[in-house]
Amino acid sequence: xxxxxxxxxxQTLPTILKVLKLSLRKGHDCTLYCCFTKEDLGSASDYLTxxxxxxxxxxxxxxxxxxVKALGRERNNYDAVFGINFFNSSLNPIYKNSxxxxxxxxxxxxxxxxxxxSFESEGTIFSNTEYSKxxxxxxxxxxxxxxxxxxxxxxxxxxxxEPKRKIVFMAPHNSFYQHKxxxxxxxxxxxxSVRSYCDTNETELWLKTRSKYSNVEKQxxxxxxxxxxxxxxSNIDTYKDSCLxxxxxxxAVNELAYLEVPYLIIGPEIQRGLHTNRxxxxxxxxxxxxxxxxxIIDNTxxxxxxxxxxxxxxxxxxxxxxxxxxxKDWSNFQINFFDKNHIGSSDRILRYVENEVAKSKPSDFNK
Length: 367
Description:
Strand order of the largest sheet: 3-2-1-4-5-6-7
Number of helices: 17
Largest sheet: 7 strands, parallel
Structural class: alpha/beta
Shape: globular
Strand content: 5-15%
Number of strands: 13
């Protein structure tokens, strides 16, 4: 079977990595369309192995639109296409048609944020969870959404590590700074509290930056390490051996849940109020209710810190201590909020696609 994979920058690779590796192992002819080169694979090189990497046909362009055009010209040569960001308008030439062998993996809740109504396609979305499946169908009306488990979560489960004395602080998205006046000062004060805690407890403090933004946070305190997302899986490598990750309602909570790293969410009330005049606000509310408030905030695996009220050193450090030192039951936490049934999902999905391709063109299958 000839398969095309189309993604974006390095941080999107883990979404398809497990299925890509399995496809190569099964002898399928795989072409990867992406906005990075083999030199940017980082630790993904070890996961794939050099032998499998050499089997990948690599199509690179820094411009995603040109990648889409390149795949469009060659689409008839592939039995199936795997991608991400199903509803993104720049990918309409791939997904907005009657081909039944176009498939998209849910990526970082983008299908919930960016859903559109009356999307004309015969492609299939593989959701990460049953909750996402219901949310995507409910918000968009698009019915061809299947939940067979998440290869992304399966990959993460294989990459857990023993925690070190290391706390990772994730820089906020620019939308948070734009929404809340004075957030820079709040971030500075939180970082000073965390830095003081780390110094007292012989713990390193790392900053996970956002490559698209100015990352002013690096000026506020001394960090032991500053990590970007240039290399594939660099974010996962940064999180997996941490004792705690602090974030501003990031979709990285998916990764942290399966890397089994506790996390502190800051400013959930800001996330809830983002983009209220845009269509994506409906998805924002659903994600807020499921992942940034309510029962998931158990103060064992996950805690939150509101910026609406006064907070200081004692409140910040008490939450850090609580999350690091509490006894965890990650298995139940995952089942309750992120579903079970992810192990073996890459195999289930690939078998599903193989069967669909065989039905669509039986005479050509396996050539």
